[in-house]
Amino acid sequence: MKNFKLENNLIGDKNWPEIASVYVAGNKKAMPINPEKDEEYNEAVIQSWDKIVVLHAMAPKPTKFHIGFTDKFVTKYLKYDFVTDLKFAMRVGPKNFQIIALPKNMEDKIMLEVVEYTTENDEKYKDLILI
Question: DSSP 3-state assignment of 126?
Fold first, then answer.
């Protein structure tokens, strides 16, 4: 086997950029998605999840990125472009998952932090985007 990493001197952090992510514990009271049902049914289930997590994506300069999530079985991201210094919210379902901020340019650095857990009706965040 050829050791690609050593042959190409791919050692060190400059060759291994990190993707910003935060871990979110699931809400065990939330109804689970049913893979045997259609997308319309499952979207209604997702819309019923009342617990949300508020996040803040930051970078040293305005940076385009995609928002995504991953659990043990799937990793998905939204194709829509966002720009850093953005606060946004995501619904919390029954499973634990990680939210990721995937920069368009993989070399750009983004920091992602949890601001707080709340509900969709929280007046403090009435103008926030909910994904």
Answer: coil
